[in-house]
Amino acid sequence: MSPYRFHLLFGFSIILTLLLQQPISHSLTQYPFQPNQCGEKCGAFQIPYPFHVNTSCGSLSDSFRLSCFNSTSLFLNIASQSYQILQFFTDGMLVDFPNSSSCREYNGLNSFGFQGNDYFGISTENILGLYDCEDSSLCKADCEKTLMHGCDGRAGGYPACCYPLSDRSAWRAGDGFPVFSQFGCRGFSCWVVPQGSITGRRGVKLEWAVPNNSSKATCAANAYIINATSVPSGLRCQCQDGFVGDGFAQGVGCFKSCVREGKDLHGEDCDKRRHSSKKVEILAGVLTSAFTIASLIALFCLLRRPIKSGNFDLDQTHIQSSILFSKASRTRLFTYHELEEATKGFEDAQKLVGGTKGTFYAGILEDGSHVAVHKVHCESERDLVQVLSRVELLSAVLHRSMARLLGCCIDSGYTPLVVYEYPVNGTLEEHLHHNKAQKIGLDWYKRLNIATETASFLAFLQYEISPPIFHHDLRSGCIFLDENFSIKIAGFGLLATSIGDGPLSVNNSDGSPFGRNDVCGLGVVLLEIIAGARQLDLPTIALEKIRNGKLEEIVDPLLYYHEQPRFHREQIEIVADLATRCLLFGGDGKLGMVDVARKLLHITKENVDGGSGREPALKETFSNSSLLQMISMSPDSIHVP
User: Fold this and answer.
1) CATH 1.10.510.10: which residues of the chain?
2) Which H or E element spans position 387?
3) What is the pLDDT of residues 427-449, one digit of tens each?
4) CB 594 within 8 A of CB 459
5) For the residues of 96-119, what is the DSSP string, one character each?
6) For the segment 564-574, what is each residue's pLDDT rounded down to a tens digit?
């Protein structure tokens, strides 16, 4: 294959990819709330759904009915108490203390008696200033940096003893403020720091939600479900990125949101274009279609030409001068020399993970950037073109769990080099197997989060991307970990030959090999997460131990299995059973990645409910049409149908 022919073919593939591909991005963005479907107001307040003043304005429940006093002040009535609303948020409202007629810097611990019900709960975003506490062990230095408003609305100072409810060490969702009497505290003030501000506003934030068994809690199109953090079994609807509204089918729903010429536009206004703009778009569309057809014809003719024998040789200077690649592609074209220097000549000491179709090497570029270089072994021109096409496809996936693909090198013959950004905490394999001295053991909480994020991301690729994307070569060495131990997946199988079902080093009971697909690969990773140290026959040994009820014999000693809380030991057993099912039923499609992700999400939520209180980085969400719309901001807000 001549250099000219390769460059032309590669250029056509880049052009077609850029013309035909749609951006793949699912990010979570908070939008301001919208007025309810009746457009009700009370003074300066626009009343958002599901709240209402008039009974004629439909809502999800009478619990969301408000009282408008003198057309200026808005009140929420719960039981026999009346709380004045100071500010609305997308997930709740800031209220004053009940029957408060004067502003006091500190209130008694019993002055705010409400703890929670099926619709409202005290938000974990509240920050307390505690007064005259005998035990200062609950005081948190970090939140003292928050500047609090005085009663006159001006900035006051820093609280003497500050405690954020999100800490949850002394307070949990459902507790009242009197719980702080056990620390000898006699009073408190409460504040909330609005998003984008460093100054707190006085009041108590209440979170609202709808019981998950409510038949009226149906989300609109282009919305997804999230769970409440402080209302047990409560949920809300939230519009996807690019849409605004209340998210409920019985509310205003979700409609498009856009910014044009510096202005925020909504709904039909986003579809309106000036006449001249339409002409330009039509002309561009015609030219694009014509160019695409011409490119396809030229590409077809090119592939029909006979291939002359000879050595494969690429001229790097010619490629770098190609406008098609350097101008249009979002991936960088590296030289073999700079990657060779970065990896110290691809020496064994730099090897991260190896395989039959490629090897990962750690490296540092001249600018100090840490990278992982995937050295892919191709056997033909067709393999090489397929690798480059798949690199372009993967570089278009915008997801926080995807390892950032920086670029590639194609001046090394049939061995293309794919370059990923390499996070600071290395690979999961290094931590589990202690391959390097600087790597530390992972506690069960981190391991469970890593497993959940991995399954969720793989399910996202398979159920949310069209056409679906499969990894085909999943292993712990391909799971990178960032500074927060959140995952970054790399090492995707780039060749069709890696897509087929190849055997693992373990057999079914009838002697047939397990299918090498993503579910089976995840099963092996789950066993490694439990067992830690690598064994060549780990699946065989693990399955035998699990089958014989001797799971504790394979659990990583660093997990201290017998010293774990009971619910952690139960979780380890459930994950071990899930890994077994992945290996037994993943190869024939009886168990899908969505099923694995759903089960792990259940366990992760139990981890939070069981007392961990920390949150894994499950930030990405699926669309409303997805089977995985339960994945949301954190385990506190996971809704599993």
Assistant:
1) 426-641
2) helix 381-395
3) 998 888 865 544 566 889 999 99
4) yes
5) PPTT--S--SSB-TTS----B-SS
6) 888 899 999 99
